[in-house]
Amino acid sequence: MSQLEKVQSEYEKFTEEIQSVIISTVSAQGIPNSSYAPYVMDDAKNIYIYVSGLASHTKNIYINPHVSVLFIEDEAQTNQIFARHRLSFDCTATLIERETEKWNEIVEQFQERFGQIIEVLRGLGDFRIFQLTPSEGRFVIGFGAAYHISGDNLHQLVQLTGDSDQKPA
User: Fold this and answer.
1) Are strands 20-26 and 32-41 parallel, antiparallel or unpaired?
2) Cα–Cα distance between 32 and 91 in angstroms, integer?
3) How far, rounded to the nearest angstrom, does the alpha carbon of residue 162 sit from its chain's CA centroid?
4) Residue 29: helix, strand or coil by DSSP?
5) Which region, left, alpha or beta, applies to residue 101 given φ > 0 means left and ψ of -120 to 50 means alpha?
6) 152: helix, strand or coil
């Protein structure tokens, strides 16, 4: 197995052990906000978050649907704090309307993953499900080991090389 194949395999499995994603949004005044939310992900790498309508990040998503997400290796599991494995995506958020077939399908996935708390949340009218659709991303597994992910194929990594921080052509 080549090095790229090993990294590709790690990428495909990376989010499986992570139960929540860090989400970054921007307010109407341009003030950034970072928070987190438990999530589920589909095979196309769409990320679904189930969040309170009272939360700052939810209000920000309504104002500006551009969201950045970060999955990051647990500090207790890392070998080098300066080089934690991480995956980030630039996403566009779309509200999933309550009680639709898609909404019920996603709620069931949340229930399978997180258990009975979802029954409680399901009864709270202020909770919303957003689909975060990635347009591009970056997977970093150490110093000098960064890979670009294009929205054209979110399953394919392209290694970033040299001193350029630009996306591959």
Assistant:
1) antiparallel
2) 15
3) 27
4) coil
5) alpha
6) coil
